From TrEMBL:
Residues 62-398 form the Amidohydrolase-related domain. Pfam families: Amidohydro_1 (PF01979). It comes from Phytophthora kernoviae. One of its GO terms (molecular function) is deaminase activity. Keywords: Hydrolase, Metal-binding, Zinc. Coiled coil: none annotated. CDD domains: ATZ_TRZ_like. This is Amidohydrolase-related domain-containing protein.
């Protein structure tokens, strides 16, 4: 029997394909070629049928689909820890917005995005849904590093470092909507990203909604971050991906289901900013698609999707007082396939299935804190951390090999981060001194 030559054969102790949900394959192989998964089968059969240009044995690992960070402001990694323990509005008005006004530029975005991508790849995140300024710089970093991403075209009614207002933001968005229209790029898609109901008015929403429909783009926004906003907003009727959604009322859930909107649950950020606890179990019960996001490193303060999975599962149990709420398999699905579905990429990523893109991560399961292991799915959610991720592939290209980044100069990233941090520290000290005299 002639063996088929392929790009890569991964032999693993365990494979969690996510579809079917909860299934664990033991001693299995994932075969990839031309950026896609071409076979998922027992290792013995793979050895008989395929020869890989590269073959890798992962005898103490679990293979998973890459994680999808469905909401982040990735370049804000440069503002990690800048301000903590404040209410959302105070945190924004007193700390984030003044610092962004002073520093945000294409260079800031490029360095911050590179920093964030390095962190996300190391933690098993293969796709991020980003909302921030200067989207061209973000697209450039994604292209250079090989990470998959949806890039938000940020829109507000007020001036930002990126532009003077909605007219300019919409004008700048259109070229990227054309360039990265669905199916035009292997790694990058573009979304319309109105910041929130408190920064974007109805007329602007109608204009961006029309543009999104014209180019078949998703809409990505903050919604229901605080109790007051839950009372005032009707934005869920116009949005595809609504982040935070921390209200407790049943009527908005019915509206979400009826509108076909997706919810992005950011448990760590919601808790840290005291924004409330989302009714995730009830959303899922009602058929609302719920994915997971970290939010930015300035409010989380990490980009750790393993942490979000575990916290989402535990919070749901606390909120419902039911230990069966959001079991491990559901939490893993939220971090993978549900995120892909919200982006319109469920036929491309989010599970290990034949025909899908080869976005795959390997999680080591033989370290002392990972033993013993009786249920691989539960272990991934409740025991594993991002530090157990050893290898990452996106679109069939290896971006992390034996815990080493392959497309990013980590030493240079650290140098750049330290330089930016020093500039920001000097500015903040001067700002505090000035405030002390008033």
């Amino acid at each position: 029997m002639t063996k088929q030559t392929v790009d890569l054969v991964l032999y693993a102790a365990y494979v969690i394909p996510v579809v079917p949900q909860g299934v664990v394959l033991e001693d299995a192989a994932v075969v990839t070629h031309d950026s896609r998964i071409v076979a998922l089968l027992p290792s013995a059969e793979a050895q008989q049928s395929f020869v890989g240009v590269e073959e890798k044995r992962l005898d103490h690992h679990i293979l998973l689909p890459g994680l999808v960070n469905l909401h982040t402001h990735a370049p804000m990694s440069l503002l990690r820890g800048l301000s903590d323990d404040k209410a959302l509005h105070d945190w924004l008005a007193e700390d984030m917005w003044p610092t962004e006004k002073e520093f945000v530029s294409p260079e800031f975005i490029e360095k911050g995005m590179m920093h964030a991508v390095a962190e996300m790849i190391r933690g098993g995140t293969t796709c991020c849904n980003n909302m921030y300024f200067f989207p061209d710089a973000i697209c450039d970093v994604l292209g250079r590093t090989g990470m998959r991403g949806a890039v938000g075209q940020g829109i507000t009614d007020m001036a930002t470092p990126y532009g003077s207002g909605p007219d300019e933001f919409l004008a700048k968005a259109e070229p990227n909507l054309k360039k990265y229209a669905p199916g035009c790029h292997d790694l990058i898609t573009v979304t319309m990203a109105p910041h929130s109901p408190y920064t974007v008015g109805g007329d602007t929403l109608l204009r961006l909604d029309s543009m999104a429909k014209k180019y078949d783009a998703r809409v990505h926004t903050h919604l229901h971050e605080t109790e007051a906003e839950c009372r005032d907003s009707e934005m869920q009727n116009r949005s595809s991906m609504c982040c935070h959604k921390s209200d407790q009322k049943l009527r908005p859930l019915a509206n979400f289901k009826r509108a076909g909107a997706h919810v992005v649950h950011c448990p760590t950020s919601n808790l840290k900013l005291a924004s409330g606890i989302a009714r995730v179990a009830e959303m899922l019960r009602r058929g609302v698609n719920v994915g997971l996001g970290t939010d930015g490193a300035a409010s989380n303060n990490t980009l750790d999707m393993f942490g979000e999975m575990k916290l989402a599962a535990l919070l749901a149990k606390a909120e419902t007082q039911q230990s069966t709420s959001v079991p491990a398999a559901e939490a893993l699905k939220m971090a993978t396939l549900n995120g892909a579905r919200a982006l319109g990429l469920e036929c491309e990523i989010g599970s290990i299935e034949v025909g899908k893109r080869a976005d795959i991560i390997a999680v080591e399961c033989d370290s002392i804190e990972m033993l013993p292991m009786y249920n691989a799915v539960s272990h991934v959610v409740y025991v594993a951390s991002r530090n157990h991720v050893s290898d990452v592939w996106v679109n069939g290209k290896q971006l992390l090999r034996n815990c080493e980044l392959t497309t990013i100069n980590e030493t240079q990233v650290k140098i750049d981060v330290h330089q930016w941090a020093e500039r920001i520290r000097i500015f903040r000290n001067a700002q505090h001194q000035q405030d002390g005299y008033t």
